[in-house]
Amino acid sequence: TSGKSGLHVYVPISNKYPYEQTKSFAEVMAKLMVSKYPTKVTTEWRTSKRKGKVFFDYNQNARGKTIASVFSLRPTPTATVSMPVSWKKLDSIVPTEYTILSAPKIIRTKDAWQNILSDKQDIREIISKATKFKEY
Q1: Fewer beta carbons within 10 Å, N or C terminal of the chain?
Q2: SS3 state of residue 54
Q3: How does pLDDT run across 22-41, given as a tens digit for each residue?
Q4: Is 82 exposed, middle or buried (0-12, 13-18, 19+ CB in 10 A)?
């Protein structure tokens, strides 16, 4: 989770790709998702034009950009925390349910971030699978 209402998607990439290629990969994935799901996904910067859609911010994949990393405490009234969650849990969580009060217990129980770097992905395989993916 982002620690607010959104999600950050981390994809550990195989070390065989240079920075520019991984940056381009994020843009290709964004454009692919917008073309497949134009009523659900957008890359539109203006919030007024993206109501009801998922904002795919591929521009965050640039040198010098900052992000709220995992376990980051966010400046919100309930002191929300950016928490790693698996894809399987996305349907059963609310990103803002992770707070400074609930996060420590969850982290002690299971750290979903623990193995994030052990399963490096191949950009070509991801794009190939994404172009074949069909919505249910």
Answers
A1: C
A2: strand
A3: 888 889 889 988 998 999 99
A4: buried
Would you state the structure tokens that stand for residue 95, as one six-digit string? 């990103």
Q: CA–CA distance from 92 to each of 86, 95, 107 (Å)?
A: 11, 10, 17
Bridge partners (DSSP) of residue 73 are 81
Q: Which residues are CB-contacts of 22 (< 8 A; sequence separation ≥ 6)?
A: 13, 61, 123
Of residues 70, 72, 81, 77, the one with CA closest to residue 103: 81
Rounded CA-CA distance 43/10 in Å is 18
pTM of the predicted model as reported, rounded to 2 decimal places: 0.71
Question: How many CB atoms within 10 Å of residue 103?
Answer: 19
* Cα–Cα dist 9/1, whole Å: 8
Neighbouring CB atoms inside 10 A of 104's CB total 11
3-state SS, residue 81: strand
Round to whole Å and give the CA distance between 103 and 83.
8
CB of 13 closer than 8 Å to CB of 25: yes
